[in-house]
Amino acid sequence: MAAPLLEKLSESLGSPEPAVRLILSVLIGYPFALVYRWFLFYQHATVIHLFHICSGLALAAFNFGSQLYHSAVCIFVQFLMLRLMGRTITGVLSSFTFQMLYLLAGYYFTATEEYDIKWTMPHCVLTLKLIGLAFDFYDGGKEPSQLNPEQKKAALPLVPTLLEVFGFSYFYGGFLVGPQFTLRSYQKLVARELTDCPGKPPNSVVPAMKRFALGFLCLVIYAIFSPSYPDTYFLTDEYEDQPFWYRCVFILLWGKFMLYKYVSCWVIAEGVCILTGLGYSGVVDGKHQWDACANMKVWLFETTPLFKGTIASFNINTNAWAARHVFKRLKFLGNKTLSHVATLFFLTIWHGFHSGYILCFSMEFFIITVERQAEALVRDSPLLTKLANSHLYPLIYVVQQFFHWLFMGYPLVPFCLFTYDKWLKVYSSVYFCGHVFFLVIYLILPFLRKILVPKKDRSEKKQE
Questions:
Q1: Dihedral of CA 246/425/311/258: which sign?
Q2: Which of left, alpha, beta for 111 (phi over 0: left; psi -120 to 50: alpha)?
Q3: What one-character-per-residue DSSP string does 244-291 give?
């Protein structure tokens, strides 16, 4: 009965059935959260774990059928490694290796040249969650003085139970699309500690509904505009026949509206986490905060004219996970740039084998490098600083935003088209303008610095 209804619904919405199943599954998190608040909040931890496990498995079965066994196998193996290997570096490396190889094998055997919603989609979220669990368990065996504040907050002092690990992994608020959160946070949720009213369900309905409304608005924007800017249009003769300026503007608008697909799912899922209490992050300036599971800073995402601002506002918890478990743990390399490159390489492989991922993340690294140097030039140049703070700034902001969104969409082309033959066709049609633009800026910045930065300031910088 459900299948024909879903088929009709997907036809009426003009969306693939797997996509409809996914968004319905994210929305079902709200009724699940209400069941938890109304009937299970005061129940024993075992009952809560079982509810999270059963609801998560139901969502997995609804979306992926019998392929849910992939997640169950990886969770159980992870639990065994925690128990049998203990708090050892061998346990961490074994967990990292097994979980990543399983994910990459899934990519290899299920890969197509299109974006498909299949079991590997939530599994990439689960992979980070289980690797993070291994790191947090390892940190729990260290002296507190050896840990930074983030590690202290996430470290596990006790061995988690099988129910805890499965409940944490299948929690309906984060199983399908994220966000990332730690087992320690999940334990606090089950122990009724994540609330603004000690011993009572949190007053989080209004904050959760605000995120739901915002996420639903983003979903509506995506549903309205994305059909006008499909990925497939890039590969048509019609696109190639358009003027150069049109092809560039299409990339800008396509990139902008395409990202709402991710924004909407993450913000709606965040609302589920807030409703349960998992999103509670304490009190700041006398106000209760509900941003512990925030994966998007939507206002910053919409208003920042900087590439680093967009990155800081997008997929926040995954970026924080990568910073905590990859970038900062590579401190022994003694080189931030090398650590940054290694972190981006990990995220590239984590997304999959397609060449488009490599090009996207390498382009991101280059753009951020150029932007940092440009910011330093503006900061050190009295003339540019004065111009940036003048009444001309609104005009500068508009121009900056145009280039910002044009070249945000530019590296997303290979990210979404995946294969070499497709993204090369698009980049050739716009004459590799993004690569040329940033390469030229990179090459002329040293000369601009000599002209625009006083010699005294340049010599002081060299001494620093």
A1: positive
A2: beta
A3: HHHHHHHHHHHHHHHHHHHHHHHHHHHHHHHHHTTT--EEETTEEE--
For residue 294, give Cα distances in angstroms to 239, 260, 261, 375. Answer: 37, 15, 16, 28
Active site residues: 315, 351
- The CA R_g of the chain, rounded to the nearest whole Å, is 24
Per-residue burial over 345-377, b = 16 or more CB atoms within 10 Å of its CB, e = otherwise: ebbbbbbbebbbbbbbbbbbbbbbebbeebeeb
Q: From CA 345, how far away is CA 133, in angstroms rounded?
A: 21
Residue 460 has pLDDT above 80, yes or no: no
What gap in Å lies between CA 93 and CA 95, rounded to an integer?
5
Contact 68, 85 (CB under 8 A): no
DSSP letter, residue 314: B
426, two tokens = 């698009």
Predicted confidence at residue 388, as pLDDT, reads: 87
Nearest alpha-carbon partner for 219 in 19, 379, 57 = 19
Residue 289: strand pairing partners: 282
- What distance in Å separates the CA atoms of residue 426 and residue 260, rounded to the nearest whole number? 22
Q: Which residue has the tokens 């951020």?
A: 368
Q: Confirm if 276 and 221 have CB atoms less than 8 A apart.
A: no
DSSP one-letter string for 23-34: HHHHHHHHHHHH
Six-digit token string for 333: 């390399």
Q: How far apart are CA 251 and CA 313, in angstroms?
A: 21
CB 317 within 8 A of CB 295: yes
Region of 281 please: left (phi>0), alpha (psi -120 to 50) or beta.
Answer: alpha
Residues in the chain: 464
Instruction: Determine the Cα–Cα distance for residues 1 and 27; give it in Å rounded to an integer.
Output: 20
Residue with tokens 């010599």: 459
CA separation for the pair 92, 137 (Å, rounded): 9
CA–CA gap between residue 110 and residue 22 (Å, rounded): 18
pTM of the model: 0.94
Residue 361 neighbours by CB under 8 Å, 6+ apart: 344, 345, 347, 348
| DSSP assignment letter at 161 | P
Could you report how far apart the first and last alpha carbons of the chain are, in Å? Answer: 70
pLDDT of residue 238 exceeding 70: yes
Q: Which amino acid is at 296?
A: M
pLDDT (tens digit, 9 = 90+) per residue, 369-428? Answer: 999 999 999 999 999 899 888 898 899 999 999 999 999 999 999 999 999 999 999 999
